[in-house]
Structure formats: C-alpha cells, structure tokens
Design brief:
The protein is built from five helices and 48 strands. It is mostly beta strands. It is elongated.
C-alpha cells in the first residue's frame, strides 16, 4: 500500500514540474542580444530545388525564402563547392543585378549535350544565405537540333540537301555510315549564310548520320537514308574473234567510281575496282580485251559498293588443244574430213553445208568426239548453216558438240536433225550451244531398232522453232537408254503440228531439266510419258500459247522433283497442276508480240524469267 502511494506522488510531481517549466519557456524573454550585421538569410530548401534542362537552356525552380529580395544562381562545367569563389573558372552567373526575384527562372546561353553544376543563394539588403546545391549536384542539357526535317525531294540515290536556321552559327558538317570514320565537310560562307548545303558522293540506299558543328560544339544530328539506285540500261557485245567485249550503259547513271570484271555469274560487292577514264565515262562505253574463251564473266560499273549497270556474258568457246581442226565449206569437204580423221575432230564451217542431197550423215566409229563450229572464231562471227537429213553415230563417242550454227533439216514434216536409226553407240553427251534449230520434224529421234546409251542431251542459248510432231526428243523403244535432257536459256516455238516437247515410249525414266526457258504454242501436252515416264525439274520459265489441255500425258508416271518460278499465261488450259503459277495475264499481255515471234516480256515483274535473250 505504501509503495503504490509513493509512485502516485512521484508521477504527480513530475508532471507538475514539466507543466511549470513549459509555461515559463513561453513567457520568458531572452536576456542576451545579437549584432544584426552578422545575420544570414535562410537558403531555400534543398529538396525544393529542381532543374529541367533543354538543349540550350534550363528551367530552375525552388521554394521562396522569407525576407528575400533576389536570388543568385551560378552554373559551371566544373564542380562547385562552398569554398570556391563566385565566378571563378569562367562560370555563368545569373541575377547579379538583382533581376531574379521569383521562381522559376530560365537559364539561357547554355550549350547542348553539356553537363553543368548549379548552386543558388538568397540575397537581401547586403545579406546572403549559404549556397544551396541540388540533391543530384548536376544536370545535363539535351542535344541541340538546328537541322530542319529533310524533304523527300532533297534526297537522291547519291546526295542529301541539309538545311538549318541560318541565324544559328555553324562551321562544318560531319557524316558517317556504319562504323566508318566520319567524313568532314567545311561549310563555306555562302552555305552558312543560306543555312543549307548539298552533301553528294553518297552511296544508294545507305543510312547516313549527319552532325552539324559550330567549332567543337555539336548543334544537331540527323539520320537520312539515301534512295535506292535504279540500275541503268546496259548491253554487252561479245567480239569472239579478239576475245574482246564492249560494254555500254545508258544516260543519267550519275557518279561512277570504277568498274569490275569478274569470272562467273556473280553480283559485285567489295571487289577491287579499276578506275574509269574520262573518255570512257563520257562515251558510256568500256572495252575489255584479253578474255579467256568458254568463260562466263560479269562486268559492272560501280558507285562505291553499288552496282549502277551490269551484264553477265559468256565468251566464245575455245577449240580444245587436243582436237584436230578441219575447215569445211561444203558437203564434199565434210565427207573428206570424216573419212580422213579420227579421234577428236573439230569441224569449223567456212561456208554453208547441205547434206540433204548428198553427204555423209553417219559419223564413223573412228571419231570419238566431234565439235562442229558455225564459223571460224579467229576470222568471223557469222553463223553458217548446217543442213542434214539426220545425223547418227556408228561408234562410241564422248562428246558431240554443235556451237554457233544454224542447224536445219529439210522441212517441219520431213526428217530429223539427229536420227538414231539402227545406231549401236554409247554417247556421253550431245550438246547444242548458241544455235538456231529449225525446219525439222524432230530434233532427236531415237528409234526402237537402236541400242546403246545416250546419257545427256543439252541445249543452251538456243532458238528452237518450226519443229514438227516428233518434238525435241522422241524416245521410241527400250533398246537405247536415254538419261537426262536439259534445256537452259532456250526459246522453243514448235510448228503448228508440234504436239509436245518430249515423248517417252521407251523402257526407262527420262530426266528432264528446264531452266530459264520460254515455251509457246504446244497443241497436245508438254511431256508425253507414254511408257516409263519422266522426272522433272523446272525453274525460272515462262509458257504461253498452249492449246492442249494437259501438261503431262499419263501423269501417273511422272515425278516433279522441283518446280520454282514457273509461270504460265491465262491462255494455258492445264487440267493438272505441277506447281506452276497461273497468271491472270493472257499471251498478248505477257509477251510483246508472240504471234510474230517477239517474246519480250511486258510486265517488269516477270522480265527476269524465261529466256534471257528477251530481256534485251
């Protein structure tokens, strides 16, 4: 009981003492005095100080302090601290004239993309507060942008016209692509006064970064992509006699940096270039000599890494060194050449040869490879005519080649260009290159009484026309085995009696490979696999004028290995599809004048398909 009373007495006394002293502190007056000359104003609260930077200015906001007449603001690219004298080191001072009397305040005269330190103090009647610093100590201005937006008409495939406010000082332009070193263009007095400059010598379809400077200060950045270049028209003339080509290109091609000549069908990129002379540029023509025979080349004129005009071509073939060369100008000389030579023989036509009335059509077994040229490449390009009732072979042969000639029979309803009639030969390849095949009932007739093997038939860069009902190949029996038939970069327009390209009545499957060809006017089926059938690979090909209803006759025995970029006109009434793309265009809309044999392709989107001869 006594302990509880003691606690109660202590608690009451303590509260009374605190109450008494609290009242006294509110009513008593200090008994000391201060010297007002040492008074310091209160600075603004640090937490209230904020900066919003722009490119060349910054807006400062703060909380006003009592009894303050104005404020001083200092900014510097060096750090600021209390012991550093105001204005030291070239800092910027604002409000020294008492003009800053309220918040916010805009700091002007700053540089873009620059980091500044800032401090502020309050001022009144000669008294100042301590410096107050932002919590983050510094701020960075935005990048300056004095460039105007580039209009579409100010951009070409090799130049960009840049403009800016001429009142903004600028001394140079730097521009760069990818990771390369920047190119520098010093601005002339006229360009600075006008606020515009044309930057040329650029590459097409490349994104460039342009930067404008005044001294060392960047005042703007802009990204611009140049337009894609439209490749100029061009052509190449091959002069086989001197292993020389002449390459010409069209007008309005723009600036050129050089040319490249490469082996193969390739697209130039970063290969070393050869400089063009002023005369070549003015003539828009380039002559190349010393080329190899039987070689595919690509020639292009360039602007930097951009192709401005391009052609791919193949030089005339060389007669191999291990062939015996014989000049033949008529049927008698042909007979003599076959009778007196053996092994590998190259027959060079010096005139037209007609074997339909007389002359030997059977190639003797003593000749193991035969090369027939339509003209002497040393003296002329003229393609002579070789007319036959059907060549056949009595022995085994590695290669039979016909190059640059007009190969005729004696009518579209009579005879054949090649007639395996009772042949007992093993022939590796029969090839037809850069030839015109005309006026024959069929090109290859493989009769049922023949035996042996014909592994490959190849036609490249050939114009095949007026071929009758036996088509390009007629395989009639199982005695002679036919391997693969290839047509590349050919145009085939049969006679009105021409039913199909190939018919297979033999005992084996024939492989058919077709690439970059133009076909027009078949009346029955394209491939007639009457017996063993076909395998087919077809690409980059155009077809029109087809009046037959079937692509394959007897489709059950045909296998399509691949079909890519095969387009047929709306006039082709196929019942079955092999993967071809059926166009809405009719023959007259697809080709320039198909009835007159002009198969230039009208729609530009299909110009890259079909026989390349029609792209010119």
């Amino acid at each position: 009981m006594k302990q509880k009373q003691l606690i109660h007495i202590l608690g009451t006394g303590t509260f009374g003492f605190l109450l008494a002293t609290g009242i006294a502190s509110c009513s008593d007056v200090n008994d000391w005095s201060t010297d007002p000359s040492f008074d310091r104003l209160f600075g603004t609260r640090q937490a209230s100080l904020s900066v919003e930077p722009e490119a060349l200015s910054a807006t400062v906001e703060w909380e006003a302090t009592p009894k303050t007449q104005s404020y001083l603001i200092e900014v510097s690219t060096d750090s600021l601290y209390d012991d550093r004298a105001m204005g030291e080191g070239g800092s910027l001072l604002y409000g020294t004239d008492g003009s800053i009397t309220r918040s916010p305040y805009v700091l002007t005269g700053l540089k873009g993309e620059t980091t500044y330190y800032l401090r502020i103090k309050s001022v009144s009647d000669g008294k100042e507060s301590r410096w107050v610093y932002p919590e983050k100590f510094k701020f960075t201005t935005d990048a300056e942008q004095i460039f105007h937006k580039v209009a579409d008409e100010d951009v070409t495939d090799e130049s960009v016209r840049l403009t800016w406010d001429a009142a903004m000082e600028a001394t140079r332009i730097e521009y760069v692509r990818d990771e390369e070193e920047p190119a520098v263009r010093e601005l002339t007095a006229e360009e600075r006064a006008a606020g515009e400059v044309l930057i040329d010598g650029l590459d097409p379809k490349v994104t460039y970064t342009f930067m404008i400077y005044n001294g060392d200060t960047r005042r703007g950045t802009l990204e611009v992509q140049t337009k894609a270049a439209v490749m100029a028209d061009s052509e190449v003339t091959v002069d086989a006699a001197a292993r020389r080509v002449t390459f010409t290109w069209g007008e309005n091609i723009g600036r050129l940096t050089g040319y490249v000549l490469l082996e193969g069908d390739v697209y130039p990129a970063d290969q070393p270039q050869t400089a063009l002379t002023d005369a070549q540029v003015q003539a828009r023509q380039l002559t190349l000599t010393g080329l190899k025979g039987s070689t595919t080349y690509t020639v292009a004129v360039m602007r930097g890494r951009t192709v401005r005009a391009l052609q791919t071509f193949k030089t005339w073939a060389d007669i191999p060194a291990d062939y015996t060369k014989v000049n033949v100008g008529n049927a008698d000389e042909w007979d003599a050449a076959l009778a007196s030579h053996s092994g590998k023989v190259a027959v060079v036509l010096t005139g037209d040869v007609d074997l339909t009335a007389s002359g030997t059509a059977k190639i003797p077994a003593s000749i193991t490879s035969l090369l027939v040229w339509g003209g002497d490449v040393v003296t002329a390009q003229k393609a002579h005519t070789f007319r036959t009732k059907g060549l056949s072979f009595l022995g085994n042969m590695d290669a039979v080649e016909f190059y640059n000639l007009n190969l005729f029979a004696n009518g579209s309803t009579n005879n054949y260009l090649f007639d395996f009639n009772g042949s007992k030969a093993d022939v590796n390849t029969v090839s037809l290159t850069s030839c015109v095949l005309d006026e024959a009932r069929g090109v290859f007739r493989l009769r049922s009484n023949s035996t042996g093997t014909l592994r490959n038939i190849v036609a490249e860069d050939c114009l095949i026309r007026n071929i009758g009902s036996y088509g390009f190949v007629s395989q009639e029996g199982s005695g002679l085995t036919l391997g693969t038939v290839t047509l590349k970069k050919c145009t085939y327009v049969p006679h009105s009696s021409g039913k199909c390209l190939l018919q297979n009545k033999g005992g084996n499957v024939v492989g058919v490979v077709i690439d970059q060809c133009t076909f027009y006017g078949f009346t029955y089926a394209f491939l007639d696999n009457n017996k063993a059938g076909f395998t087919l690979d077809i690409s980059r090909t155009l077809m029109g004028g087809f009046t037959g209803s079937k692509f394959f006759q007897n489709i059950a025995t045909a296998t399509v290995n691949s079909c890519k970029d095969f387009y047929v006109s709306a006039d082709c009434p196929f019942e079955t599809s092999i993967g071809e793309m059926k166009l809405e265009l009719k023959d007259a809309d697809l080709f320039a004048n198909p009835g007159a044999g002009d198969f230039r392709v009208k729609p530009t989107e299909y110009a890259a398909f079909g026989d390349p001869r029609w792209e010119k």
